[in-house]
Structure formats: structure tokens, C-alpha cells
Amino acid sequence: MFVSYKWLQDYVDLSGINATELADKITKSGIEVEGVEKKSEGLKGVVIGHVLEREQHPNADKLNKCQVDIGAENPVQIICGAPNVDKGQKVAVATVGAVLPGNFKIKKAKLRGEESHGMICSLQELGFESKLVSKDYATGIFVFPNDVEVGKDALEELGLSDEVLELGLTPNRSDALSMIGVAYEVGAILGREVKWPVIEKEESAEKATDYISVKVEAKEDNPVYIAKIIKDVKIGPSPLWMQTRLMSAGIRPHNNVVDITNYILLEYGQPLHAFDYDRFGSKEIVVRRAKDAEKIVTLDEAERTLTPDHLVITNGSEPVAIAGVMGGADSEVKNDTTNIILESAYFAGTVVRKASKDHGLRSEASARFEKGVDPARIREAGERAAQLIAQFAGGTVLQGTAEVDELTMEPAVISITLEKINKLLGTNMTVSEVESIFKRLKFGVELDNETFTITVPTRRGDITIEADLVEEAARLYGYDNIPTTLPTGAATPGHLTDYQIKRRKARRTLEGAGLYQAVTYSLTSEEKAAQFALEARESIRLAMPISEERSQLRLSIVPQLLEVVRYNNARQLDSVALYEIGSVFFKRGDQELPEEKEHIAGAITGLWEAHPWQGEKKPVDFFVAKGVIEALFDTLGLTDQISYRQAQINDMHPGRTAEVLLNGVVIGFIGQVHPTVQKDLDIKETYIFELSLKALSEAEVAPIAYETIPRYPSTTRDIALVVDQATKAGDIQIMIEEAGGKLLKEVTIFDLYEGERMEQGKKSIAYSLKYFDPERTLTDEDITKAHEKVLEAVKEKAGAELRG
Amino acid sequence: MMQERLLELQEEALQKVTAASELKELNEVRVAYLGKKGPITEVLRGMGKLSAEERPKIGALANEVREAIATEIEQKQKALETAAVNAKLATETIDVTLPGRPVNKGNLHPLTRVVEEVEDLFIGMGYTVAEGPEVESDYYNFEALNLPKSHPARDMQDSFYITDEILMRTHTSPVQARTMKKHEGQGPVKIICPGKVYRRDNDDATHSHQFQQIEGLVIDENISMSDLKGTLDVFAKKLFGQDREIRLRPSFFPFTEPSVEVDISCKICGGKGCSVCKQTGWIEVLGAGIVHPNVLEMAGFDSKKYSGFAFGMGVERIAMLKYGVDDIRHFYTNDVRFLKQFNHHEA
User: Fold this and answer.
1) Distance (Å) from the C-alpha of residue B275 to the closest C-alpha of chain A?
2) Which residues does residue A751 pair with via DSSP β-bridges, in sequence order?
3) Is the CB of B336 inside 8 Å of chain A's CB atoms?
């Protein structure tokens, strides 16, 4: 809502407070003023001129040579290219030395050999937006009414020296969508009275009901419909002051009748519509829901197809307007219109919103109906408009109205105690302070002891409960005056849940291992949604995605991380190590919320270790990535519950991929991205993992129990085993551990040989076995006994032979 | 005669010790003078010729001489050893200004960093951290928060709906609604709710279809607007600095009444007005208010007995203000050069 500082003074006294101060006060007490604009700021030297003579430029077809009286001693010659400039016009002249928007300075010039001492201006050249300029002057200069005084400041006459406050209204404050509404707000802030426009009714003996009748078939949508008839109007421009006020509020002037309806919309917040009586097509107004596929051509000359969701005004047979949204072209007020039906009504917000949305038509009118207009102003707004039409379009207002009025809207009455207000705000306001606030708001106040009974005027439909009154008290008392305290209730222990702690530990561990945390989007393309998914389940699609790229909920995080790798690789960042913890979404029933699980995923590529000047360099490989997740399992206390299994997973390297199992159940995978996929993505060799954090966090973890530090020495025996190439080191390790008995404390692989000195299809793995007993020093005999069992077991189960 | 010979030997030996420059040489001196075949032993052997009076005197002197030589040798030996070690160490000198072997080290994403900081602050004030699903029912996302079906704020255009009843949550407020319901009308409730939220926006420098929020909720008997103000004051000072002030401005949210916008004083201009704060001296950081009685009642709390406050902020906005990030998309691009900047503890 744009509010002219000057116009506002018609309704509330603003003496002693300038526009900027006013803006500050309004902002502090509840409506954010987003800006105060003075369009004439930085402009100067534009005066009203009178075109005394106009002739064709001798050397240019499209230019005019004008002699213009600008109130100076002598007229000046101005060359003007506007097609509509003519002798006798009053125009805006930027004189030599003038400054126009964009710091455009006007100088004396010679145009095709003729001197020009200034410029005759269009409204656009003076800083008006094109969409605000009346169609009459859209492509030429602006012509003032003849009664303006030559030599006067044209910027002033055009209202450009006015200051306009831009209010950012929250949805509850539709009461401030009118000048009178804003006046009430300002009156409350400043403690000043609100002056309403004075309506002097002058009506003829003829009755409106002789000309028109009103019938409403959809009373819930339209409880009040008031029609007035104004006869014998003469369509022409509206007064300049009205045009400038409309433009200051962002509305383009059309003609006197339309401008007056818009002026009242701004003044009262009540949208009105004027129909051409003679083109209406009947003598009855019937308001009803549209029939299916019924059609109307609206003012913008678009044919619109209606449905029963839309409310229409009809002439009994044809729709003539979409209620509250836009009128029809057939009954539009045109230059030859003489008789007018003036509509002032209440249309329900829901039905207006539906129509405005379905037809993509949002207007000043529809916005007000959607939020609910003040029922108390409907009748008066119509009366005032009729009077202004008579005044500025020269018509006769017929007596009375044709109407349906079944609106019963009682003002809300709410009781509240002083104690309640103070308790909820933490303040110590007195009875008289609170009383004064409600009185300044022009609410009805009854006071019984310390209980207020407040009658809320219908213009403030947003106030319905005690809390709303508390807010009114708070904002006018001033939030700056509310004390600063902390809650004083019983103490509550603040903590993270077990899951949240584990998640933080996981973050710390992965960061400690060298991975950066990434955050990517949950929405992705259909193709990527299921790629690398740990569980082959259905994904979820949005009903109305913005783009295919963000249409599906992800089943895995890895594709998004690979995209991040791609982004970084493309920017010469070859070594990238990332992890992300985020939700993936599995579809359940159609009407059920999906199953959301948090996963941990990682992507590592490039060099893992790089210490160039000492010649150290280690590229990432499978075991680097595996080491990272092993550290994670260690932190979570799950090392003993985790195992790995060689696996084939789509889009993963067939030989370098493992499933990760927690107590035998697959909870994730790790491995290299398939080289073909790497190539497609244009990324280097990349290792990834994705694990279910949910599963990891739910596993039972053994409590920490201290074990005695060994007092007796341990003994180590090394063995090198020759096994088949396909035999897994992890399997042999398990065999060794099982066979070694309780004396075997630790098994470490210290060498792996697969070179040419081995028999074809064989490899050698060397294990270091550490034996000890916490109670005694082991004898050679003890160890040999245990060790023999180990050798037997691996020979039997894995066909392993001791390497010579 | 023998006395002179001994003193002479001492003199001679000490000179050789001093002259010795290597351990080997020193050892030769030791063997030469103190060995069994050495000259001192020889002198002692000739003691039989001496008188009984002189014998002990010469004996004593001989011992003194041996002692003196031995002491000197020992000292010299230590000196030579030290010199040898020093010489060896000198050859081992390295350039300490060369860079160390890098230890791999990652760090939190800036958004998580802000979230954890806020969580920890409020945990210290007795809050717990509540979380909920990112895909929500229309009921918890809107209805339970006093946004009935007909509410204009509930445009399909603004949210990612999956079905008519299921959508990507548009704020973390449904977690508040769910938590309140769990409490079955029993206060106190003190929670902080961080999480991802989704709006149907096109991504640009200031909009992101996915972003993060942190909301807070306190319900107890006697909770007031002044408690909200005090709590947010603590928050602003912790996150943005002790010299920051807060300002409350009236606003509107369907789930709180009264509702306020909360501004913090601008650090860049110190409140005088600059381009960052649009000449106002204040920067909007969050929305808050007293929990709407309808919201309390819908969740099973008696609004006559209990009152509460709630506040909510955009994590990206906080991070952008705190670190001076100028484009919200950086948070989701994950350029390593961006991520790496959030690596150290700030005092």
C-alpha cells in the first residue's frame, strides 16, 4: 500500500511530524514502512508552460517548433518531437538548467538548425512509470487542464513533491489497505482524531429502483449488493489532483468515472464497479455462481471460461462481471457512456480468491475482497462515489439504491483483565495506560474494576481473541518499553539425545579423518533419485515440481556428492574428500508419510596424502576409504559387529566394492565408482560409501570396561601363507582367530605378495600372531601348541600352505 | 730424584692429554702413563731402593700423580665425546621453516556450525533438541499451527506438495506441534528444533528451494513477552557479539499472537546506518511471538494455565550475516574452497 503524506492529511492532522518521522513511528508500532519516496528529489526547473504557437520544424518532418510562455518575460522557442503537442496546451516544460530523472540536465540546444530552449516533457520523462501514465498520454507529452497557472512548478502540480510511504502489510492488517484505515492507525499512534470525508447527498426524485433491480442467488458469497444509478454523466478526464493521487498510489488514471471508483477504493478500501447502464443488457442484476463452461469477455478483452467455482454478476442471462475480480467488456464505461450503474458490494474472500487465481487476475479490488472489506463502509463508499461522480462527471444521482442487504456483522466484544495483559507481556502497565491505548485505537472501552470489555470496530476484523488485544496493547505501549527477563520456571536438564550425540561423534570422526561436510539438496531428478540406493525401494515424486532436476526425493546421497566432486574437479580441485549426513526418503503407502532415514555418505578422490617436498604422495584407494569408515565404526564402538562382503552393485566397480554388514545385516556399501560412470560424470577415480546412520546408531554397544594392562611379556610368531588368489584375507583372519584360542590376542597382516615369483593363481599373505596370557609368562610349549592348531586350521579350511 | 721424576712424568702426561684431539689418542696416553708397563709403575718398582722414611712419601706422591692424570684424562674424554656428538649433530641440521607433513583435516559445513552453536547455547539454558520428518502431513505443517485449509498463506504454488495431504515441510514448526502433542498438555516444554525445510522458490542469490531453520519453543506457566525478549537478547549476544542490541517490532504469524520481528543492531555501522542494514541501523534476523492460544489448545495445552513463546530463524541468513556470505547458493554448491574457510574456532 502506497500512502501519500499529503493525501493522508485529509483524514488525520499530521502537523509537527514529517513523513520520515511518521514512517519511523508506523514501523515501530506494527506496520513496516518499507520506504519513503519523494519523486521530485533531485529534480528541478520544470514549470507549467503555455504553447502559444506550434509550427512544423522547417528541416524535420517529425519535429515541431513551439513558442512557449513559461511565465518569463518572453516566450521561449522549444523544439518538440511529441506527436500530440499543439497550440493552446498547458504543458510541463523543463527549462534550460532543469534536472530530470537520471541526473539529465537540460541545456540550450540546436536541433536541425533551430534553437531549443528547454524540453516539453512526457510523464515518463518526469519519472512516472509507463504503466501509470494514462493511455491518452502514453506516447506523447502530458497536457494539463487549462486552469493551471503558467510559470508554476509543474512537479508540484503533478504531485511529485509529495512523499509516499510504502507500507509492507502483513496479511492480518488489511484494515490498512485504505487511506481511512491508515488514518486510524496513525491516529492511534499519535493520539489524534480521524476525519471522515463529508458526503453531501443530492439526489433526484427519480428512484434507482425504477431503473434496476438486484437479485442475489448466492447469498453466502455475496450478502450485500448495493446498486446506485447516476444519469447523464459526461465522461472525461478526472481532476488533476485525483489523477496525481491515483498515480501516487500506483493506479493509472482512465476517465472520471473509473478514476472515482478507484479513488474510493483507495480512500475507503471498498472496491466499486461502474457498469454502462445502457449496455448492461437488462434492468436486473442477478448475482450467482457461473455455469459450467459459461464464457465472458473481460475488460482486458480476454475471453474467459467460467466454472461454478466462480461468482458472477449477470444481467439475468449473461455474465457481465466476474465478481470482485474484473468487469466485462460489453458493459464497460466508455467515452460515450451517459448512464451508470454503480456497484458496491461484499464478495466473500474465498470465491474471489478462487476466480482471481484461476484466471490469473490479481487486482487492487480482488486483493481487498480476498482479505475481507469492512462491512460498515460498503454503503457509504457507494454514496460518496455517486456524489463525486455527480460533482466531477456532471451526472444526477437517482434516489436511493437497488439492493440486497442481508449482512449481519456484529462487532466483536472481548473482555480482558489488566492482569492478563501484564502477565503475558511481563509489563506493569496501569489501568489508565491500557485504557488510553484502546481509546486511541477508537475501540469501544468499558471498564469494570480492572477488566476491560472492548468492542472492536468491524474495520479491525483481525481482532477476535484476548491475545489480539494484548498485541494491540504491546505495540502501542512500545516493545522497547517491555522489560528483558528470562523464564523462571522449574529447571529442565538440557541435553542431546543418544542419537544426536552419535551423529555429532560421526561428524567429528569424519572431519578428523580429513573429510569436509557437504550439504546438498534432497530433491533430485528421477534418474538420480534411485542411483546407488542402498535399498531398492520406490522413490517419491512431487506433485508440481519446479523442474525435472528437482522433482524426486532422493533414495541416496551419493549422486549428489558425486555432483559436488564433478563441480570441484571442473575447477582444478582434484583432491576432494567429502561427507554428508542427511535424510533419504522411502515411499510407503500413497497416503502415508514416507520412511525417512538418515544416511552418512562420503566421496573421496585425488591424493589422500601429499607431502611433495619429501616426495610422499598417495592417491586415494579402496583401503583409504575403508580406513575412514573403520575409524567411524571404532568411534561408535561397533568394530566387532561390522563385516565386509565383496559385492556387485550397479554403477560400482565390479571388483572393488563391498557391502558393509552390521551383525550380518547389510547397512551400507563402500567402493569405487564404476569407471564408466566416472567417465560420464567427468570425474577422476572416486571412492564412495553410504551407510545407514539410523542402523549404526541403533546397534547395541558394549559399555567400556577396564582391562588389566598386561604384566607378562607377549610372544609374536609370524607366518606366511600361500593361498588361492580368490581366498579372502578376512576369511583367513577369522579362521586364525577362531583356531588360536584365548592365548591368541592379536592378528595383523604385515605383507601381501601376488608377484611373479608366486605360482600362477596363488598369493602369499603374511600374518603376525601375538600370544599372551595375563596370568603368566607363556612357555614355548604353550605357544607351539596354540600355533599348531592355527596352522592346521588354515591348511584344512583354506588349503593354505606355509611359505618356505 | 724419584720425586722429580714423578712430577716430570705428570707434567709430560698432562701436556699430552691437552694435546690429544681424538679419543684414540687419549686412550694411548692413558695406556702409556697409567698402564702396567707405564713409567709411573716403573718408578714405583724402584722404590725398594728408598729409605723407609721416603718410601711412603714417594708412594703417596705417585698416587697423586696417577690420580691427577686420570682425572684429566676423564675430563678430556668427556669433552671429546661431547665434541664428537656435537659434530655429528651439526651434520644433522635441518631447515625448520620447511612445511610439516600435512595431517588430513576436514571441518563442519558452515550451516551445521551455526546449528551446533545455537543448539549448544540453548542446551546450556535447559533446552533439548527436537527433530521431526522433512516430509510432513498437511495437518502438522499447517492446520495444527493455526493455518486452516482456506488460509491464503497455504498456496500450492508456494509449497512442494506430494499429495493433497502430504508435503515437504515449509518450516520446522511442525516439530513444535508434534512435541507439544507428545507432552500431553503437561509443561514445561523447552525445545530447539533445527532442520531442513522446503519452499517452492527458484534458486537465486537470496532464495533457495531448500534451506534450514532453527525454531525454539518454551511452554510453561507464566511465560511472557519479556522472557522472549531476554532469551533472544542472550542469543543475539552469543552469536553476534556482546555489543549487539536487539529490537522487537510488531508483526504477524498465524501461530503466534502477539507476533514480532526481531532485529539486531548492525555491526558494520554500529547503528548509524549503512548499505548492509539499508540505512536503518538494524538487521532483521528472526520472527517470534507468544504462542497462539489456538495452537496451545490444538496440542492439548490449557491456554488459561500455560503460555509460551516461540521463535524461528533461517540458518542461512544467520550464517550469511555472521560470516558475510553474499550468495545463498554457496551453501549448496559445496565448493571446497568455500567449505575450507569454516575451519577454526572463533574467540
Assistant:
1) 14
2) A766
3) yes
